[in-house]
Amino acid sequence: MSYYAFEGLVPVVHPTAWVHPTAVLIGDVIVGPGVYIGPHASLRGDYGRLIVEAGANIQDGCIMHGYCDTDTVVRECGHIGHGAVLHGCIIGRDALVGMNSVVMDGAVIGDESIVAAMSFVKAGFAGAPRQLLVGTPARCLRAVSDDELYWKRLNTREYQDLAERCRRGLREAAPLAEPEPNRPRLRGTTAVQPKHQQR
């Protein structure tokens, strides 16, 4: 893992969290229990404090950073999709930030909200619970449905389970020259499907 102390502050990672070896955690970073930090994520706590609370996930290529004297926070069971950027913001409990979205300084995403993929949340945005936020700049399209929140929670549960699966089963390996006969497929633990395939 790439952990770096910065001016005396060492990242804190709970023993039940899992951080991919290519992720980078610098300085004032606090990672809670059951958290998943994906490949090439960058949590750079060289100015403000970065906090990832219990059961949250920060997926591949995500960036967390913030200004001095600020906290950038992903609350409990937050779900941060591939390539998202969080800068000096607060992501509410059980909220989802979609792939390649950007959430700017001082923005607060309400509990159980969903930020759609490729959205841009302006600095200082003050969200409410269960908002579906869409666009550039992001606006509230409507309330998050019970079905959408259920789907989000299934996905978050998959990442919580993935943290444990990675601790047990991820090992560096040499690639094979060709697929073996009857190559098995990997399965998740909740049988979650992409939202567009659900009825």
Main traits of this protein?
199 residues, mainly beta, UDP N-Acetylglucosamine Acyltransferase, domain 1, eight-stranded mixed β-sheet, 1 helix
Structure, explained:
There is one protein chain. The protein is mainly beta. Helices cover 12% and strands 32% of the residues. β18 and β19 form a beta hairpin. The N and C termini lie far apart (41 Å). The relative contact order is 0.11. One of its GO terms (molecular function) is transferase activity. Pathway: Amine and polyamine metabolism; carnitine metabolism. This is Carnitine operon protein CaiE. Keywords: Repeat, Transferase.
Distance, first to last CA: 41 Å
Listing every helix as H and every strand as E from the N terminus to the C terminus, the arrangement reads: EEEEEEEEEEEEEEEEEEEH
Into which percentage range does the β-strand content fall?
Answer: 25-35%
CATH class category name? Mainly Beta
If you consult CATH, what is the topology? UDP N-Acetylglucosamine Acyltransferase, domain 1
Count of runs of 4 or more consecutive helical residues: 1
Number of strands: 19
CATH homologous superfamily name? Hexapeptide repeat proteins
CATH second-level architecture: 3 Solenoid
**Number of folding domains?**
1
Average of pLDDT: 95
Largest sheet: 11 strands, parallel
Low-confidence stretches: none
**Globular, elongated, flat, extended or rod-shaped: what is the shape?**
globular
* CA radius of gyration: 17 Å
Into which percent range does the helicity of residues fall? 10-25%
Structural class: mainly beta
